[in-house]
Amino acid sequence: MGKDNVAIRFSNVSFEYGRDKEILDEASFTIQQGNKITLMGQNGAGKSTILKLIEGELKPESGSLFVDPNLKIAYSKQVIPRDQLELTVREFFEKCFDEKMYDIDKRIKEVLEVVNFSVPYDKKIKLLSGGQQARLLVASALIQDPDLLILDEPTNNLDRAGIEHLMQFLLMYDKTCIVISHDADFLNYFTDGVIYLDVFTKKVQQYMGNYYTVVDEIAAQIEKEKRKNAQYEKEIIANKEKANFFANKGGKMRLVARKMREKAQEMEDAKVDVRREDKAIRDFSIPCQTGLVGDILNISSFKIMENHELVEKKANISLSKKQHLLIKGRNGIGKSTLIESMARGKATGAKIAPDVKVGYYRQDFSTLNFEDSVYDALMSVMSVKDEQVLRSTAAGFLIDHKIINSKIGDLSEGQKGLVAFAQLVLLEPGLLILDEPTNHINFRHLPVIAAALSAYEGAMILVSHVDEFVDQIRIDDVLDLEK
Question: pTM above the 0.70 mark?
Fold first, then answer.
């Protein structure tokens, strides 16, 4: 490894995407060999940019970036790229290597055991559930036997057993690891320190210690900054009042007044730009389609996956207004397939009442057209096209003037999630179908989202493996696919 066992060193690195899109401003931090580091920051703060700089996919505008030249890097991304969904499991792993691997099946078997997953190697990736794809992403990084393992939101879509398994693995892992995650308990289990990106100042701070200690430290720092600013504010007001008093006296007193004003300006300049990052999305509600009466959805049967075979089960579930159904089951049992077929009106054992508007939140955001601008995506779902309502709703989801004209495909995964929620608000659906709606979303937003879903007055189907999130939502019925 490099000198002093340094794996990566950023020294005053700045980076921007074109004009007006500054991401990093003179970022400096060091990662030692063997460290397990968490990358923290609001959606769109530049976490993925830092990873791309480390990988060499992007180059800094200024400053210096040292990445040990002997460092073999493997990056487990948040989602499997769309152009790889048609590949088989074997073809997907083969793409991890530049040359042909003659023992590829043996290697696949070993890494799938590590992530606790069994699958036929000739199965197409698009046929796997979100949780199975999540396991595959981690395995695709491990099969490369890297010195630096990068995991981007590895717990998304994983059930509790999958998360426990991954935590145990990372605890025993003795190489360098960088993790981006919004799962606080998961991070606290193994992290040595945090690299924190501020989405407003574009600066980076490095903290050592476990995750909760660092979060407390950041909260204490914010409180300190607020108190300091409040003190400055009091003194600024006092100095301005004195300056006005002396200025009215005339003569030499005007000189005193000028000095008072200069002192007030010095204090104004000294005020710390308190981290605004801790801002959550605004409270919101999802309006329900009007004129709905009787049953909105009836489920008489459904299909699940057992031993790689589809098996039909009987059911007797009806949902009308204000009724919320939770669908549970292990990764790969067929939750996403079931609710997608419902959302598209193709499920043989489920019938949605005529003229019901369906709001469907997909975990992979494939309901969004990645070529559309955010503005067009939001406008497209509105029955009454009202630009003021659109912009006001977007602002509540932290979609500002810089983001609203961006292409959906250029947004971070977390920003795509907020766009998808803004669409649901503007759509005014009668039936909400939500597939893992916490994936990629900053944990600060989750209580706001939970409150909105709990208060939703239409019929709702929810799939989520995050118990703390589900516990905050009013659920009237549970369909456990394993029972």
Answer: no
